[in-house]
Amino acid sequence: MAKASELALKQRITQYTYGILCWGRDRLPPVIRSVVGVLFMIGGVFGFLPILGFWMLPLGVALIALDLPFSRHKIDHWINELKNQVEPPPPDA
Q: Which helix (H) or strand (E) holds 32?
């Protein structure tokens, strides 16, 4: 029973991470994306509070990394890996 709840939690975290990274990449201009990344990192420092959490730190770093040319391809690769985990493969026809 515990394994099913752990898998469900992992799937929710993966979906949430994928959604935030795609939103930041596709809808935010670079300067605003960096500001949002810094705000996420600041929120991650206060991870002991109920709404804020330590999960915000890596997402803030990833949002800022989208603006850095030498790290953009790594974040894009991570987004593609998350996409593969979130979306099930198409059935064979």
A: helix 30-45
Parse the chain into domains and list their residue ranges.
29-87
Residues 34-50 have pLDDT tens digits of 999 999 999 888 877 77
Q: Which residue has the tokens 């990394």?
A: 65
**CA–CA dist 7, 3 (Å, integer):** 6
Nearest of 55, 58, 66 to residue 23 by alpha carbon: 66
Residue-wise pLDDT for 47-60, tens only, equals 777 767 888 888 89
> b/e for 36-49, b at 16 or more Cβ within 10 A?
bbeebbebbeeeee
pTM (2 d.p.): 0.78
Q: Please name which of 63, 82, 80, 61 lies closest in space to residue 10, comparing C-alpha atoms.
A: 82
Residue ranges with strand state E in 1-93:
none
